[in-house]
């Protein structure tokens, strides 16, 4: 067994607890230190974990013990933190989206290329048993030739539960940039990259009201579209219909369905690692649940770091995250112009994940 991968976390807000839990479970990854603009948050995050140091942000980004900087700041800070880590010669693993804009994301990937370091990016939920089992089912031809997919995410908005929801309603946020990465990464994992998009979008309210925490009752401005719909035309010709909304009370639509010439799949929530994959073949009376056949079992956020233990582009990697961001920006451009937009970038489908417990060393 080699040395563990040494990592440091910048940004100790709501999502950091999930990373801390995952890393504590992975013997091949060691958390050296955490940092936040608010040192109190960093201290609170590190407190339950023996040996994890609290550093200031600049110290962590240049700490020679740290190989990978995990960037869990808000989207508007993703590029700045990533670029500083890359300048210090570190690999970076970023929460989604890769950056608030495609232009910033491009700067991150170019800097990483020049420095010879790697970029990984959430979501790694697509490496779990849910999406991976669905991918294998499609690759093995259980639905025949894929023709279409639907992807639906509808909620009333995260300000009901998040104590600091401002970032969800400024550029880099909105339902598409916030939740789209889960759905679009899943669609690309199953059906390949996207060539062209058509879109329409709306914005229902100029302000949102925080529903919990010390700022409860405070109104925050909305400067992004809060209901975004569109069609993604995959390079393969498959048509995926996307609905991403912070303007709906409830939905009973499945998160994702994939339809082929001989069968249809219901795919579980791509914001989770697991969940049932349901198959109905032409002529079947009812759907049947497929046995789990691929993906990391019992996985949590941060499992994508495992690929940094070996060479090459991580599965939850910068190239895929850049294509996802490009698809989302193209969709918004299509919505605002009323025209279809060709997506300039593309990416490889990442290699499938064999069924295994990520805590076991290979
Ligand atoms: N909250 C969730 O459920 C959730 C789920 C999945 C992914 N994410 C993603 O995780 C990221 C963080 O979300 P969150 O909900 O934890 O946000 P948050 O606001 O709760 O936490 C972000 C933290 O980053 C710190 N920060 C901001 N700018 C910084 C900078 N320049 N340097 C150092 N620290 C800085 C803030 O002080 C804060 O503690 C976002 O990209 C979000 O999309 C969040």
UniProtKB/TrEMBL annotation:
Record key words, sorted: Oxidoreductase
User: Where in this chain does the record put each Gfo/Idh/MocA-like oxidoreductase N-terminal domain?
Assistant: 6-120
Q: Does the keyword ATP-binding apply?
A: no
Q: Where is the GFO/IDH/MocA-like oxidoreductase domain?
A: 131-266
Supply the Pfam families for this chain. Answer: GFO_IDH_MocA, GFO_IDH_MocA_C3
Asked whether the keyword Oxidoreductase is assigned, the reply is yes
Domain of life where this protein originates: Bacteria
Q: State the protein's name.
A: Gfo/Idh/MocA family protein
* Organism the protein comes from: Nonomuraea salmonea
């Amino acid at each position: 067994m080699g040395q563990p991968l040494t990592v440091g976390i910048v940004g100790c807000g709501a999502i950091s607890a999930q990373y801390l839990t995952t890393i504590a479970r992975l013997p091949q990854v060691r958390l050296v230190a955490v940092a936040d603009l608010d040192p109190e948050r960093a201290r609170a995050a590190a407190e339950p974990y023996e040996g994890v140091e609290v550093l200031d942000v600049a110290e962590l980004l240049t700490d020679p013990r740290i190989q990978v900087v995990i960037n869990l700041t808000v989207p508007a800070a993703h590029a700045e933190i990533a670029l500083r880590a890359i300048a210090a010669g570190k690999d970076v693993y970023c929460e989604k989206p890769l950056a608030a804009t495609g232009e910033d994301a491009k700067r991150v990937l170019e800097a990483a290329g020049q420095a010879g370091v790697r970029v990984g990016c959430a979501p790694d939920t697509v490496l779990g048993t849910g999406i991976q089992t669905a991918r294998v089912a499609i690759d093995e031809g259980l639905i025949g030739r894929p023709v279409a997919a639907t992807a639906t995410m509808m909620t009333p908005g995260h300000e009901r539960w998040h104590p600091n929801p401002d970032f969800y309603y400024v550029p880099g946020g909105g339902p598409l940039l916030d939740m789209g990465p889960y759905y679009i990464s899943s669609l690309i994992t199953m059906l390949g990259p996207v060539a062209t998009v058509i879109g329409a979008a709306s914005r229902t309210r100029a302000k949102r009201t925080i529903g919990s925490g010390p700022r409860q009752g405070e109104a925050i401005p909305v400067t992004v579209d809060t209901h975004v719909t569109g069609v993604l035309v995959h390079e393969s010709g498959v048509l995926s219909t996307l609905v991403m909304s912070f303007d709906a009370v409830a939905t009973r639509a499945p998160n994702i369905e994939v339809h082929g010439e001989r069968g249809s799949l219901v795919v579980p929530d791509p914001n989770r690692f697991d969940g049932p994959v349901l198959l109905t073949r032409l002529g079947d009376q009812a759907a049947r649940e497929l046995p789990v056949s691929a993906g990391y079992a019992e996985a949590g956020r941060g499992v994508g770091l495992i690929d940094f233990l070996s060479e090459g582009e991580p599965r939850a990697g910068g190239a895929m995250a850049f294509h996802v961001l490009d698809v989302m920006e193209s969709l918004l451009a299509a919505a605002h112009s009323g025209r279809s937009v060709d997506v300039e970038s593309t990416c490889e489908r990442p290699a499938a994940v064999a069924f295994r417990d990520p805590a076991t060393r290979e």
